[in-house]
Amino acid sequence: MDTQAIPGLEPASAARLAAARPVALNRGQAVFQPGQACAAFLIVTAGSVKVSTVTSSGRELMLYRVGPGETCVLTTACLLAGADYDAEGMTETEVEALAVPKPLFEELMAESPAFRRFVFSSYGVRLRDLIGLVQDVSQRQVDRRLARFLAERAGAPLALTHQEIATELGTAREVVSRLLKQFAGEGLVEIERRSIVVAAPQRLARLAEGL
User: Fold this and answer.
1) What is the residue extent of each domain of the chain?
2) What is the distance between the alpha carbons of residues 30 and 51, in angstroms, rounded to a whole number?
3) How far apart are the first and last CA of the chain?
């Protein structure tokens, strides 16, 4: 790895980092798996690694990708906390990377301000991406929760405001209003002036189950 990619890296730290072990991985190769101990800080120099987890429903959820010049926030977190991995890293292409052993990682974190800035800057950027993913997943699940909420109350007009429904579901009024408009367009509900009429409870129930 070109140590100039880490701005302001001190000469002594650059020399030590240059001695870290280069690794080459084939496409479709596991980089790490849930429950595995974290032994090295990986800086990808070429290729792409996909980091994903499995949801409670058994579906794969892609968390983020690590490309050239980037690091893995999960690896950083595991090294800092002394914890095992709880997600999977899989190469999407042939990958070249620099593996910084845990002892060297800890020494550079303690002794090199430039290395610390590089690690925490990468960590911060990726953390923002993950927060965005959590918000996106949360909103995508609201449609199912709203469908279930409405299906369970079918049979009589629902005299609740959008804000009251949002409070029940733990989301924003704007999200509920948007979804209700979508449901109305699909013929699932009819939105009247002071109430919501469930027009297709069985279809809403299927939507709630993800069918």
Assistant:
1) 3-111, 141-208
2) 10
3) 48
Give every CB contact of residue 81 below 8 A, 6+ residues apart in sequence. none
Q: Name the residue type at position 65.
A: R
Which tokens hold the place of 116? Answer: 């610390």
Residues in the chain: 211
Provide the residue type at 36 as one letter.
Q
Does domain 141-208 bear CATH number 1.10.10.10? Answer: yes
Strand runs labelled E in 20-120: 21-25, 30-32, 40-46, 49-54, 60-66, 88-91, 95-101
CATH (residue range 3-111): 2.60.120.10
Contact 148, 205 (CB under 8 A): yes
Tokens (6 digits) for 28: 């479709």
pLDDT in tens, 75-120: 999 999 999 999 999 999 999 999 999 999 999 999 999 999 999 9
- pTM assigned to the model: 0.65
> For 58, how many CA atoms within 13 A lie in the half-sphere containing its CB?
1
Average pLDDT, the chain: 88
* pLDDT tens per residue across span 35-64: 999 999 999 999 999 999 887 667 688 888
